[in-house]
């Protein structure tokens, strides 16, 4: 079947001729968190989903003004090696950052550190034993991994699962296992903190096996390596195991041809304007190239590595920050090279138009649905009146309990975190109350945000982003609450409180 550029989940179920609940379940198994009937999926994702049902979905090629990802190179084995992308995942406080710092420090030891290390969401380093280049994702945990995956950007080659020997398998460990499995990414386990007196490596291995990890000790393929970031015991073994896995996956990509990549983070930076970090997937990125990602285009001005060093070119596997965007694309968006800047602009205009059309179609759908409900209610009222006038009894239908919602606008300094926060906020719901995110955005709170919030009766959540004095004043005038946060748990706690205030009092 030919897939439209954009379709709602409910439309997709119709197109694929599967039950909506089945589609929803399958999508959740694949790692999609938003499977509401009205959630819009693009054709690339629709294709992946169709594939899961064994249906061959073809992306509509009718919209000529677009650029497409290239098919895999004919002879991948003949392409040069590229640094594999490794994501550390695991429960909070189990030692991810410490281990990342250990890997990062090999670069610093080698004296290759240029300026001050910048957080760009990924960094390149060499393994100590083999000097092999690897790219570590340095993003805040699972949300980023999931976000990148959901957008069809299966960026990660290896998941390095971190489990503390004194704490064993915890909820986020299980979640990480689930994500790695769903992504079909090979996993390596580092059992950290083995220097702690309460460390119990056997328990961790048993718990991992119970959590469906095919650990080597139980005859499986997943290696578990006990390490201590303090005494450095086991870190060499971890590197050896990592190197072996890297050899197995044998990551390669063509250095020539059109550039493709994936956005990791988008940020507005003082002096640099709109910037993104991205990982080059194929081709060699150079300044002046016209790029397209999502509904943004870029005429590459500068390319920096994580040490703020300006690069003349970035081959596959390199994490870089680039400047020259006209708009900010979103994490996980595919970056494609356009043939010219004009073409890039046309592609973006075309994509925006298609999204607008999909939204308008959705609005029509909502209006029709509302009309249908109104019509039904009017009919019921009429019938009731007729029965009353005839002196017949009227069965009072149980009043359908309406879900109450609190609405929010989320602004954050890094778009990765805005999205992650919005996802967590949307998860706060039950049958009676729900948190609704109207809009997420990157950067400071603007006048527009305030007016948007005012129109919808929403609260603005400003996460590690500024609210200027004039904006504060406008918000006060418009009676729009703006709340500032720099800790996500606090933010979620407050929202839970908002929601519980909506619940009827317990009698
Ligand atoms: P993350 O939340 O997973 O990134 O965990 P961190 O890397 O921030 O580590 C949490 C705490 O555990 C920090 O206080 C670390 O110093 C400590 N830690 C990490 N690795 C080890 C280890 O191997 N041994 C010991 N004793 N402490 C560790």
From TrEMBL:
Major localisation: mitochondrion
Instruction: Please give the range of the full-length protein represented by this chain.
Output: 12 to 518 of 620
Annotated Tr-type G domain ranges read: 81-255
Q: Which family does it belong to?
A: Belongs to the TRAFAC class translation factor GTPase superfamily. Classic translation factor GTPase family. IF-2 subfamily.
- What is its biological role? One of the essential components for the initiation of protein synthesis. Protects formylmethionyl-tRNA from spontaneous hydrolysis and promotes its binding to the 30S ribosomal subunits. Also involved in the hydrolysis of GTP during the formation of the 70S ribosomal complex.
Q: Which GO terms describe its cellular component?
A: mitochondrion
Task: Name the Gene Ontology molecular function terms of this record.
Answer: GTP binding; GTPase activity; translation initiation factor activity
Its keywords, alphabetically, are:
GTP-binding, Initiation factor, Mitochondrion, Nucleotide-binding, Protein biosynthesis, Transit peptide
Name of protein: Translation initiation factor IF-2, mitochondrial
Q: Where in the cell is it found?
A: Mitochondrion
